[in-house]
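Cross-check.
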Amino acid sequence: MSLYDLAKIILFGIIVILGLVMVISPKACTKKELRENAEEVSKIRKAGFFEMACGIILIILTVVF
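Predicted model, tokenized:
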């Protein structure tokens, strides 16, 4: 595994961590004026799941190929 591949895995890992933060505490990732709106908080949580899934898929593709 080259240094370039390792750098990609680290960056994709950061994407997974950011998605995890969005899932765990979506209110902290929402604009201040929209934090009380349950619909906006739900959108942030869904985006976090999507971001985590994309990061995991990218890590798997990097390791396999």
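The chain has a mean pLDDT of 95. The CA atoms of residues 1 and 63 lie 9 Å apart. Passed to J.P. for a second look.
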